[in-house]
Amino acid sequence: MNKKWIAAALCAGALTGLWGCNSEPATTAYVQNVGEITGAGSIAVNDRFSGIVVSENVTEIQRDANRTISMLYVSEGQDVNQGDVLFAYDSEALELEVDKLELELERLQNQSSTLQTQITELTNEQKNASKDDQLSYTVEIQSKEAEKKETDYNIKVKQREITQTKNTLANAEVISPVSGRVVSVSEDGMDQYGNAQAYITIQQTGAFRVKGTINELNMGAVTVGAAMRIISRTDESQTWTGVVSLIDLENASQGSTSSPYLMYGDSASSEMSSSSRYPFYVELDNAEGLMLGQHVYLELDTGTSPTGQGLWLPEYYLCYDEPGEDGQAAAYVWADNGKGRLEKRYVTLGAYDELSMAYEILEGLTVEDYIAFPDGNCAQGAGATRDPAETTPLEGETLPEGETLPEGETLPEGEILPDLLPETGETEASPEDDTLAETAGAGSVTLPVETAGTASGGNLSTPSSGGTSSSGNLGG
């Protein structure tokens, strides 16, 4: 049998064992969001942060926990004017309460009237009583008078309760004291982190400031007094300036981090992989053109880096093909194809920023894409995961394209073989050994040859002396 075809058969068997029937590499690579890498997330090449335009003044509307709300007229994100109805209490329950209080008042008034009649009668009888009965009449009259005083006091209390309840009934509809935007409605009085929160929170219309968020990983990037640039998300030619006025360390929230530097065994959703996030506020030099609730980008205003606009990707995420006839090498990244698999995604490069060592990406990527760091786990069709704990590296090592094994060395277990063998460079068997010997246990094959040749793709080589391939891989 021609040895070139024998080698081809062995290559096909090795590939089937490595990649399986679906021809997808048995490896999973960790991918990160392009927005976070380039500036739309919590950590960026130029320390760019997400921000939102908020009001300097916030009004909180509390609710009466003892009353039932019959109707809520607003929702989160809705603009309201001063005097607009926000919500209404159940007025039927209040009306019943007023009726009950009035009945109790009437009973107390009747009781007071009866006591007064009794006191008058006892006083008249005392005048005609003997000296021996005078003392008993006096004690009884004093007891009735004390009881009447207590009843009269209760009448005043009940009258006050009726007045307050009627006032509440008249104000069953709660109106907005200011104009602004409803930023939250908390039915249970708690926010998502379990902290106490007002029923309705309104950001007042007026002076604006920008709210950003930093976490434990980039706390040092922002300090009070630092100059900031505010950039429109829809038109990055629109910018504003301001100064960090407050870093609110008292109101931290918890959020997961996409950092690849996790301890073994920790997942991105575990307690060990979460980090505290802190809001910070930027006082604007000029808010003209900004709208309440508008989403923007924030970055330190150094005045030197060109990465204030566009999508800038660190150069270590880029790979390059061999230069073509025009001498240009096409750049690409390993990107998630949206189905949990890696693909080679070609990109168009723009300017290069030496300060941040990043290229401007003109075409090929958006902030919504996910890409992997180009290491040994990246291959066409390999798995893609956003959890570092789920990565499964390829066993063994892979020869770079065009590289051959030194004389006497063998291919490591897990070596990827080329799809096709070269059509030239067929080798002849040496006179002393003209057969293929298959070793027991690992299925190794020894192929003694006289001449060297390199497979297209650089993964198969045939040095001048024999070699051994383990686990079904072919070495020469």
What is the first-to-last residue Cα distance? 18 Å
Main beta sheet: 6 strands, mixed
Q: What is the approximate shape?
A: elongated
The helix count comes to 4
Mean pLDDT: 74
Helical residues, percent: 10-25%
Structural class: alpha+beta
Low-confidence stretches: 1-23, 40-45, 256-270, 304-308, 396-405, 411-476
C-alpha-based Rg, rounded:
41 Å
SSE topology sketch:
Elements: H1 3-19, E1 28-33, H2 34-38, E2 48-55, E3 58-61, E4 69-72, E5 79-80, E6 85-89, H3 91-128, H4 131-170, E7 173-175, E8 180-185, E9 200-204, E10 208-215, E11 227-232, E12 239-247, E13 253-256, E14 274-284, E15 295-300, E16 312-314, E17 319-320, E18 331-336, E19 342-346, E20 348-353, E21 358-363, E22 370-372, E23 383-385, E24 437-438, E25 445-446, E26 453-454, E27 461-462, E28 468-469
Helix pairs in contact: 3-4
Characterization of the model:
- It is a single chain.
- The protein is α+β, with helices and mostly antiparallel strands.
- 21% of the residues lie in helices and 28% in strands.
- It has four helices and 28 strands.
- The chain has helices at 3-19, 34-38, 91-128, 131-170, and strands at 28-33, 48-55, 58-61, 69-72, 79-80, 85-89, 173-175, 180-185, 200-204, 208-215, 227-232, 239-247, 253-256, 274-284, 295-300, 312-314, 319-320, 331-336, 342-346, 348-353, 358-363, 370-372, 383-385, 437-438, 445-446, 453-454, 461-462, 468-469.
- Strands 1, 17, 18, 19, 22 and 23 form a six-stranded mixed beta sheet that branches.
- It is elongated, with a radius of gyration of 41 Å.
